[in-house]
């Protein structure tokens, strides 16, 4: 990074004794601001500490002397120094006399937006959030320069307090080819924003400190005209904007909606809920938690919707090291409570148990591509895994095995069933010899297999699963096909060919020839008529128990079937999808 600061020009306005002390100070290059308050000792502030510069209190004469060396104070009580980025802010008494000064060092840091340069180049609107002093204006200035010089766009900066492009009529070189529009009074910022679009044909508008409802409305108007917006707002996180009625329009606005009984029941929520009113003005939000650590919400709409549903988003965390290398991670979010920042390390819960796989790192990784061994190209992937699972049963103790599951879990996979028939689960696991162990202890489980209807109406289960970072896999009903399909998803096993003998055993009850004939009849009907020709088929009359097996087999093909007719001639009719 290259830093341009013109620090000497700021030191020149200070009293002589303070100027000399700061010039000889070992941390002079890290100076953040100098505080001069009437009747108090002068103070110098650095990034991680503050110290007094003199034991002699500041006098009114010293303050007046400083005021003469700077520009005119505007309606926002700010002044600057010609051709620099420094800012001098005034504190007045009730009669309007200046009795305190905050002399803040302005620095142009080239290369500070390396963390989000890829987002800047997308052309989408970006909102920067963060506490005072974290570097929002510095980042804004660098974004304007990159857009104007490197991407050759027409950039106009709305510089309300002359903080982005410096004091005076000539803009500071740090903004590159970008143009700057000054604002006569802070309350007129929204008018200048609209004027910039109407008069100067910009492709990008850069705004610092959007703080009023009129400015938020002007920003929406600009965004809807197809102009890229880059701005900062008062707020530390997106949650602060949602709760701020003045600025909530920047993230789409919030409105109360009354749901119907069916919809409320489907969502498992109250009848009156909060929802986003409109598309957000800014499509991307960046929370500047620290100078070298930013949290990026790539889709503000999704983040706001997630927060309004009582869940925590999972944004990107971007950090840059001393060598300038950017690392991007995603942190698992806290379930209840907000903490200091969404997705930050401070928000992670203490581990309930020793976890492995993706829950240990908090990151999902791509699965390695599955390969079929040479000479077995005609064998399905399911057959290969099935053969391996048979070997597990003969030679390997599941509980001591350290094989990796789909997301890095140790196999066998410990599954906590909820609302699902344990007998049917054991039948599927036993027949297919899957590396699965059923457990009654939620803390020791790797996943939860549950009925969708049960999970929807059981908020406590969802909350406990989130707190323990245990994924919930839902199935529609406690039937053999649904359970088999759910376990395959958990183990990342492909759907088998239904004609496999092992698979057909799942649907057998007594294993009689009559049952086998009935299942084979249904299988042939589906594979030779219903699916290829798209025609319904009627099967031969069967007993109720056998018809139930045929229904389950048809469901495995994701087709529908009905029983019709009177006993003993009641039979199945299979319909195409």
TrEMBL record:
SMART domains: AAA, R3H. It comes from the Bacteria. SUPFAM superfamilies: P-loop containing nucleoside triphosphate hydrolases (SSF52540), R3H domain (SSF82708). PROSITE patterns: R3H. Keywords: ATP-binding, Nucleotide-binding. The keyword Transmembrane helix does not apply. Residues 513-577 form the R3H domain. The keyword Ubl conjugation does not apply. This is R3H domain-containing nucleic acid-binding protein. It comes from Okeanomitos corallinicola TIOX110. The lineage of its organism: Bacteria, Bacillati, Cyanobacteriota, Cyanophyceae, Nostocales.
